[in-house]
Amino acid sequence: MKQFKLNNGVLMPAFGLGTFRVEPGESAYETVLSALKMGYRHIDTAIMYGNESDVGKAIRDSLIPREEIFVTSKIAKHYLGDKSLIMKALDESLERLNIGYIDLMLIHWPNQDDAMNQLVWSVLESYYEAKKFRAIGVSNFQKHHLTALLKNVKIKPQVNQVECHPLLNQTALHKFLVEHDIQMTSYGPFAKGKVFEGQTFEALTEIAKDYGATVSQVIIAWGLMRNIVMIPKSVHEERLLENFKGQELVLSASDIEKINGLNRGSRLYTDPDNNTIYL
Ligand SMILES: NC(=O)c1ccc[n+]([C@@H]2O[C@H](COP(=O)([O-])OP(=O)(O)OC[C@H]3O[C@@H](n4cnc5c(N)ncnc54)[C@H](OP(=O)(O)O)[C@@H]3O)[C@@H](O)[C@H]2O)c1
């Protein structure tokens, strides 16, 4: 499995399983367990998803050595800057997952107050230094959020996880992250189903058929070949396998360019600058 080396030397599997809207309880447990049996070694969860304890239990029950699995979680709230509440949320995340350490902890959404992001970051740094997290990063950070954060960090973020798919290819943000040696992860690779509709679907199908592949596999390969971590979600075994096999696909440079050309700048998830969580 392809891995990317983060700026602190930690290896992150380039492909993983997303678990947003994977129902807590049996569904999350079974989905993660069957993905691990299939060969997945990277699971993306978040405090907000409510399924951390199921993810952790599936990992423990899989009997796969802990160090072979990479787990990401995310802290969503800034708790109005109350450090003790931030620490409580992080401790509870560690307890729910119950897998020793967390490989990567992210600030789920930026606050529009840079000082608030700075404060949460300083708490993540202390958990990193205590070896509770192997890597720390951010999510949904625009260039301006990161530029402000980078002015005062002790430890540079290792990752920024953002919406990225053929309709929003994030070329400018990706360039900025590469320049700062911050790994980009794509979320929502299927653009809330829009890649399976209309002209986008026709164009992707045309490319897919040349490789005997599916549209989802072409998108996964496109992201991986741009050196972006891909974490598609599915609760269906056949789709988990289909997506997993997307890692093997090698696209030509011209097909990657064709997919880049499908960009419409269309954001389908929340705009990080207008997030009702904080406004
Ligand atoms: N940091 C953030 O703010 C943030 C925001 C959103 C998501 N994320 C992360 O990124 C992950 C991926 O994003 P996402 O879950 O929103 O969307 P996604 O992975 O783009 O799409 C998931 C949807 O596509 C379907 N699907 C999966 N594989 C398919 C295939 N091979 N063919 C056809 N349909 C397929 C799934 O249905 P079934 O499950 O029914 O198969 C589900 O409806 C999340 O799970 C989460 O871990 C992070």
Please report the total strand number as a whole number.
10
Distance between the termini: 40 Å
Tally of individual helices: 10
The distinct ligands, each listed once, are: NADP nicotinamide-adenine-dinucleotide phosphate
Give the strand order, joined by hyphens, for the main sheet.
Answer: 3-4-5-6-7-8-9-10
Task: Identify the overall geometry.
Answer: globular
Structural class: alpha/beta
Pfam families: Aldo_ket_red
Active site: 49
InterPro entries: AKR, Aldo/ket_reductase_CS, NAD(P)_OxRdtase_dom_sf, NADP_OxRdtase_dom
GO molecular function, one term: oxidoreductase activity, acting on the CH-OH group of donors, NAD or NADP as acceptor
How would you sum up this structure, described in words?
The mean pLDDT is 97. This protein has one domain (3-266): NADP-dependent oxidoreductase domain (TIM Barrel, Alpha-Beta Barrel), CATH 3.20.20.100. It is of the alpha/beta class and 279 residues long. Helices cover 41% and strands 15% of the residues. It is globular, with a radius of gyration of 18 Å. The strands form two sheets. An eight-stranded parallel beta sheet has the order 3-4-5-6-7-8-9-10. A two-stranded antiparallel ribbon has the order 1-2. The protein has helices spanning 26-38, 52-62, 83-97, 114-129, 143-150, 171-179, 198-211, 215-225, 237-245, 253-260, and strands at 3-5, 11-13, 17-18, 42-44, 70-75, 102-107, 133-139, 159-163, 183-187, 229-230. It contains ten helices and ten strands. The structure holds NADP nicotinamide-adenine-dinucleotide phosphate.
